[in-house]
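Subject: design request, 260 residues
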């Protein structure tokens, strides 16, 4: 009888451990919306989930690294690589499942790229990776030419041709949408645009390319990516209901996982 009681106690402890909620960090806005939707679906399927929202791009990684969170979803692989190098962390992407948050060129002053006047002010992010994406989008629009071979290390000092004499200014990424009242053109990430009530369909040029290094994916600690609770939640995230939510409620965003 004692052995049975010990065994039952062990099973009870295991059940309680299994019932511990998986804790996911997100940045406020569209990404938080889709994760909250997936969390509701997971709860309906019997899995407890806690979603913790942040307003910056540093704390969510610190919280995962210390174990306060099981994972986060807000960043692409290029950003993660920079953060690991800067902070000495060894965070890893969990799974190919993810979300594409496009970038676009927006304006409240002109209606086409052909109408960009000489000397126009153009705003891009003031942080290296997304600033480089902004410059590359300006080049794709035919407005500037960049020095070849720079990749994501390109800066505004690598502009080798600027026929319209654009004034390229660097602003905090979260301020770019608001800057449209002051500048002629701005590169805005749809994460900020949608959160501020902007319409992705007003973009003069939008980049929805599924470049693997720019897909937002779940991130966790080394050795934690096979945690059963985390894997279970990610399987829920791949559900058709989540895909439909992204496509109908987050205009411009693209579900990115095999079979999506």
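Subject: RE: design request

Done. Sequence follows.
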């Amino acid at each position: 009888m004692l052995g049975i009681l010990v065994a039952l106690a062990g099973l009870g402890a295991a059940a309680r451990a299994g019932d511990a909620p998986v804790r996911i960090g997100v940045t406020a806005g569209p990404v938080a919306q889709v994760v909250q939707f997936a969390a509701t679906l997971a709860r309906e399927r019997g899995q407890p989930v806690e979603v913790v929202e942040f307003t910056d791009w540093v704390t969510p990684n610190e919280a995962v690294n210390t174990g306060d969170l099981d994972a986060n979803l807000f960043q692409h692989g290029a950003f993660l690589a920079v953060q690991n190098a800067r902070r000495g962390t060894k965070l890893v992407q969990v799974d190919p499942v993810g979300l594409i948050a496009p970038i676009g060129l927006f304006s409240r002053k002109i209606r086409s790229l052909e109408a960009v006047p000489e000397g126009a002010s153009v705003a891009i992010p003031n942080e290296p990776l997304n600033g480089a994406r902004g410059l590359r989008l300006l080049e794709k629009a035919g407005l500037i030419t960049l020095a070849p071979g720079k990749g994501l290390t390109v800066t505004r000092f690598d502009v080798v041709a600027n026929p319209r004499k654009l004034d390229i200014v660097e602003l905090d990424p979260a301020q770019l949408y608001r800057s449209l009242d002051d500048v002629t053109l701005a590169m805005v990430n749809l994460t900020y645009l949608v959160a501020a009530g902007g319409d992705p369909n007003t973009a003069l040029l939008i980049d929805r390319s599924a470049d693997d290094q720019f897909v937002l994916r779940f991130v966790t600690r080394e050795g934690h990516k096979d945690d059963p609770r985390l894997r279970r939640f990610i399987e829920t995230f791949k559900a058709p209901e989540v895909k439909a939510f992204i496509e109908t409620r987050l205009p411009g965003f693209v579900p990115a996982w095999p079979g999506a």
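The two ends are 52 Å apart (CA to CA).
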